[in-house]
Amino acid sequence: MVVTGSRLHAVRYMLAFQRYIDENHYADIRPLVAFSGTVKDPASGDALQLQPISDTAP
């Protein structure tokens, strides 16, 4: 678990973890972040809204 100072930092950590997972070809893990509303990243100008979690486990 990682605790951040803001929702924006939580999203940035999640994206960094996802890049690391993809670059290292891990198939059995994924990052998870939760918050309500939309987060606007002033660095990129992107508005990020996370999608609901769906259980893909068999």
Structure notes:
With 58 residues, the chain is mostly helical. The protein has one domain. The protein has one helix at residues 7-23, and strands at residues 39-40, 47-48. Strands 1-2 form a two-stranded antiparallel ribbon. The model has no long low-confidence stretch (mean pLDDT 83).
Summarize this structure briefly.
The chain is mainly alpha-helical. The chain has one domain. The protein is built from 1 helix and 2 strands, in the order αββ.
Core attributes:
two-stranded antiparallel sheet, 7% strand, globular, single chain, 1 helix, mainly alpha, 58 residues
Distance between the termini: 24 Å
Helix content: 25-40%
The largest β sheet comes out as: 2 strands, antiparallel
Beta-strand residue fraction:
5-15%
Name the structural class.
mainly alpha
Q: What is the number of strand segments?
A: 2
- Order of the strands making up the biggest sheet: 1-2
C-alpha Rg (nearest Å): 12 Å
From the spread of the alpha carbons, the general shape counts as globular
Query: Can you tell me the residue ranges where pLDDT is under 50 for at least 5 consecutive residues?
Result: none
Order of helices and strands: HEE
- The chain-level mean pLDDT equals 83
Q: How many distinct domains? A: 1
Number of continuous helical runs: 1
